[in-house]
Amino acid sequence: MDLSGKHVVVVGLAQTGICVANFCRARGARVTVSDGKPAAQLSSQVAQLHDCELDLGGHTESIFTGADLVVMSPGVPDLAATRAAREAGVEVIAEIELAYRFFHPGATLIAITGTNGKSTTTALTGSLCEASGRPTFCGGNLGNHPLIEAVDHEANCEGGLIVAEVAGFMLETCNSFRPKIAACLNITPDHLDRYGTFEVYASMKTRIFAWLQESDHAIANACDARTIEGASASPATVHLFDSTADASPVLGASIDREENKLLITIDNNVEHYPIGDLPIIGNHNMENAMAAYLCARLAGVEPGQIRKGARAFTPQKHRMELVGENDDIQYFDDSKGTNVAAVAASLNGFPRKLVLIAGGVDKGGSYDDMFAVLAKVASGMVLIGEAAPIIRSAAEEAGASYPIVDASDMEDAVHKAAALAKAGQAVVLSPACASYDMYKNFGERGMAFRAALEELVASKS
């Protein structure tokens, strides 16, 4: 794709927008960056741009309609200006679509999406691929490495491995994005404020399979009909992972719980991988691991390299991360558990009884799935934030028999959870809610949990 002399409008001046703008400028494009925030709020971002024009404090329609290309940053919704651009015949694409157009045909692009678990699965897949010794890039909607950075990475070569987390809103404005290996982990209600209906939201997730060809691979969750439907609609070979099956599917992955191993089937050969290699716990993480192992094996990573990469993997922050132990009670930070489905998945099959710290900003919908799992594993619950009375009411309707107490802040919550937990149990922060009643984001909430734990330990020393 030749950008030289083209006028490119980049929408959104966060990290990805900055990277895209500088990328296009370096390739000879005239670049205008458009953001709804005023210039006074974007001074640090503007300082990182290289010779770009600015359209701040709004989106000037004539700039969009006069462009040769419009590139959307992740999370930016469709705008009146982007609709006008399309009507004027201007192509509007996602950042991941732009990156894809610059990828070497000999590189293997692995793309992973889903409502829950995609960050862990992407990071684990990256670790498995790195263990192969082949040049590997791992990023996308994960951490601080937008997919556009992969273009100039050493992995963008013959035999290179590019692993990308992609979100539904990134797939909205793609029209040719074709991974060689695509995985959709699960689809549960989320972001309905943006999409309106669950059906529309699900259709955005399954767009990850939209441009696959016969030589490609589609990975889907055997327990999620929507992921199977999306994968099966493509001409690619479909591989299923199943945490409930007693034996490995013909193509895919399952768990041998008696032997404590993951079973991966490739070319009708069943491979056995000890679960003990993995530093992550819970049934949901076993599903994440199955998907990651399939991605890596289909990309040509050898079994011994898979095991090496699994043992080297460091779980991401705030995703069921063991952050401390005191008085034989383990403390887990799962602050990224911001919806009910995520919490239910992470606690299903949890190896210890636990006290759950939950609450924040309620997202609407039912808590039934969470309480169904808690009936098996909970020894108590501590509630924080605006959603506390809503969750308490849901607990009463579910017939919860364990103690439920309110806390004024995170420090109070950790102290009360520690008092409820017994030796050999766990305290888990997995809120099932957004964070912004008390914190800027889930990361800040997780750090508050860790700080409260440190204070608790210090108070007992």
List the helices and strands and how they pair.
Elements: E1 7-11, H1 15-26, E2 30-35, H2 43-46, E3 53-56, H3 61-65, E4 69-72, H4 80-87, E5 91-94, H5 95-100, E6 108-113, H6 118-130, E7 136-140, E8 161-165, H7 168-171, E9 181-184, H8 192-195, H9 198-205, E10 217-221, H10 225-232, E11 237-241, E12 252-256, E13 261-266, E14 269-274, H11 283-298, H12 303-312, E15 321-326, E16 329-333, H13 340-347, E17 354-359, H14 368-377, E18 378-384, H15 388-398, E19 404-406, H16 410-420, E20 426-429, H17 442-460
Parallel strand pairs: 1-2, 1-4, 2-3, 4-5, 6-8, 6-9, 7-8, 9-10, 10-11, 11-12, 16-20, 17-18, 17-20, 18-19
Antiparallel strand pairs: 12-13, 13-14, 15-16
Helix pairs in contact: 6-11, 6-12, 13-14, 16-17
Brief characterization of the structure:
The chain is an alpha/beta fold and 461 residues long.
Describe the protein's architecture and organization.
The protein has 461 residues and is an alpha/beta fold. It has helices at 15-26, 43-46, 61-65, 80-87, 95-100, 118-130, 168-171, 192-195, 198-205, 225-232, 283-298, 303-312, 340-347, 368-377, 388-398, 410-420, 442-460, and strands at 7-11, 30-35, 53-56, 69-72, 91-94, 108-113, 136-140, 161-165, 181-184, 217-221, 237-241, 252-256, 261-266, 269-274, 321-326, 329-333, 354-359, 378-384, 404-406, 426-429. A hairpin with a 2-residue loop joins strand 13 (261-266) and strand 14 (269-274). Helix 6 (118-130) crosses helix 11 (283-298), helix 6 (118-130) packs across helix 12 and helix 16 (410-420) packs across helix 17. It is globular and about 65 Å long.
